[in-house]
Amino acid sequence: MKKQNLTKTLNPGVKFLINYAVPIIFTILVAIAIPLSGLSGEYLARELMTRLARNSFIILSLLIPVMAGMGMNFSIVLGAMAGEIGLIFITDWQIVGVPGILLAMLISTPLAILLGYFGGIVLNRAKGREMVTGFMLAFFMNGIYQLVVLYGMGNIIPISNSNILLPREYGIRNAIDLIGIRSALDKLIYLKVGGLLIPVVTLLVIAVLCMFIIWFKKTKLGQEIRSVGQDNDVARISGINVGKTRILSIIISTVLACYGQIVFLQNIGTMNTYNSHEQVGVFAIAALLVGGASVNKATIPNVFVGVILFHTMFIVSPRAGKTLIGQAQLGEYFRVFVSYGVIAFSLALYAWRKRVEKENERRKAMALKRVLLQSTNTAGGDKF
Amino acid sequence: MRKRIIIRITLIVVLIFIGIFLYTIGKEHKVLIDNRDISVGNITYSADTTYKVRVDNQEIGAIEKGERKVARVAGVSHKIVVEEIKDKVLTGEKYEKKFKLKTNESATVNIPAMINNANEWINKTN
């Protein structure tokens, strides 16, 4: 309680430190790890550019549910699964290049909408517990995905390409080579600056998505989503269909995550049919939190700061671990520990801040009540 | 209400057409390129030198006589360019042909037949 009282008198500097604790810690860690890794600036810049183009889209898909007050959408995994199904089909049909990527997006869109709708309904039934529900929903859906891909494809869903089918002639192989669309978007138009390859089209697509999000916030639906995010009851009284608005925000997020996964996998060039989507939610959320976002506030700059800090850690931690302890694997362990730790830390910080805010509000209300009572008593005393 | 349904149906139809268009322009075809002797009726076109081959600006490389190479191309319309090589030097003789492939077709191009303008220079299979 003493600690909570302290927060009332915090100066702006301390407030800033509390609000941006995660990015500050990460910046310090990165600043220590970069020189330890001994990696050249050019290598680091090249790797960062690749990861910026690869990951930004999927992280941006998390912003709209945060706006709707639904926290970090762990169910973006559903969108990623939809994207992968689209990629399986285009690989089966041997559609290559940018048309292949676009067709995968087109095929997976209705599926992502359906999954988003389903996710939205489930999350509406678990108001206030959206994140953990989304997390479990992803596990549940993963089971269905595996059932469909492992037993349905080749059996019920026609798949003719023997290169992607298991030898038993049904079920998809563990890994699919996306050679037909590998870097198709990244290498469509690119700039070469020194040793740095800038994927112009991919960055342009990300920029368009950023502009879409900015524009979307200003639309009627965007405003409704924001008011739902601020207060469900006030939004309901204002005539907004809260449930529908929340479902729509999850649908948009799922569809964007589906496209994000396609952009991600075209960059990688191979798809682990049964694993590629599993960590998508956790890593995207960790990156966003590292960028300074919180469960109730996330902005576009948070996405890019997060990608840069989080992925710099990805790049430098094995080498830094090797220099520091003599084993690269330990650096990897450290990075994984930090990735998950950062989510736990952010969530705990958010819960603590929320509790302090509530306590402060309660105190203010009590003080107001006391003042009102006193003034009533004084007025009553004067009367008699 | 009816207007909304019409708009939605139109949108779905447009998306289906876009899908078909993307399928057509993105479909990959296998083109086998033979530099082998071929007999068409009573005439035999024989392979007697090496050719440098390019399909849709995609460099396939030199194909020596009796050799076969594969090109993977996407879309409907294609162009094959064959340049003659003698004693490891380009002679400047250049042959160019255009061809179209349907969505499920693959093709075998015979260079000796192609440079002699024989009708059977390309054999399309499903």
Give a written overview of the molecule.
The complex is a heterodimer of chains A (384) and B (126). Chain A has 384 residues and is mainly alpha-helical. Chain A has a domain at 47-290: ABC transporter involved in vitamin B12 uptake, BtuC (Orthogonal Bundle). Chain A is built from 15 helices and four strands. Chain A has helices spanning 2-8, 12-19, 21-37, 41-60, 63-67, 76-93, 97-124, 130-152, 200-218, 220-230, 232-237, 242-268, 280-290, 300-325, 328-383; strands at residues 175-177, 190-193, 196-199, 270-272. In chain A, the strands form two sheets. In chain A, strands 1-4 form a two-stranded antiparallel sheet. In chain A, strands 2-3 form a two-stranded antiparallel sheet. In chain A, helix 4 (41-60) packs across helix 14. The model of chain A has no long low-confidence stretch (mean pLDDT 89). Chain B has 126 residues and is α+β, with helices and mostly antiparallel strands. Chain B has one domain. Helix content of chain B is 24%, strand content 52%. Chain B has helices spanning 2-26, 111-115; strands at 28-35, 38-40, 43-45, 50-55, 58-63, 67-74, 77-86, 89-100, 106-110, 122-125. In chain B, strands 6-1-9-10 form a four-stranded mixed beta sheet. Chain B has a four-stranded antiparallel beta sheet with strand order 5-4-7-8. In chain B, a hairpin with a 2-residue loop joins strand 2 and strand 3 (43-45). The model of chain B has no long low-confidence stretch (mean pLDDT 90). The chains are: A mainly alpha (384), B alpha+beta (126). Chains A and B meet through helix 7 of A and helix 1 of B.
